Amino acid sequence: MRADAAQQLGETTSDVTANEVLSNINAMRYALDRVRPNSDISLDLMLEIHDRLLQSTTLAKHGGRLRKEQNWIGGSVYNPCRAEFVPPPPNLVPELMADLCSFCNDDALSAVAQAAIAHAQFETIHPFIDGNGRVGRALIHLVLRRRGLATNVSPPVSLVLATLSKDYVSGLTGTRFIGAPNPPEAIGGINRWVALVASASRRSVRDADTFEK
Q1: Which residues of the chain fall below pLDDT 50?
Q2: What residues have CB less than 8 Å from 87, skipping those under 6 apart?
Q3: CATH superfamily of this structure's domain 2-64+85-212
Q4: Is the pTM of this model over 0.85?
Q5: Domain ranges of the chain
């Protein structure tokens, strides 16, 4: 609250964590204000969300920019040899993000399944230097809002997923099948992931309803 008051007064605060939390809130508010039922989710929108997310942080100069270098999750900071996951090389990121946006604007799947797969694909691409998890979680809400669900509220899906961290990581890993797209292993991985997000969505609505009462 002190950091929020300082921002509104045009002052600075040394509370790094508070600044990051406020930037996250501002980015989410901006994102949800920009999407309406049947509107498009564009790369420009995701870049704008990311820019706002990194505002007032030490990584502000990277805000709103796709990564130009290889990144990875886990292992050493010097090389990806022991990394838990290595995203695609940076030269493929623009094309992959364009494909992801096309998927987000297609209504062939149910809304929850679409949101789940979009989030998994975003985290697999890992298009930014930092903030991928936060933007990826915002994308869940963008898809739900675009499809006409949760147009007035934002159920805390990511908070529920945070309580299922091991299942969340293993679920994401299960969607990254290497090989043909239709063997049982690939289909099973996607189905388990969608089921996890659907369960988290159902619980988030139930928890939010209890809080309102």
Answers
A1: none
A2: 70, 71, 72, 73, 124, 125, 126
A3: Fido-like domain (1.10.3290.10)
A4: yes
A5: 2-64+85-212
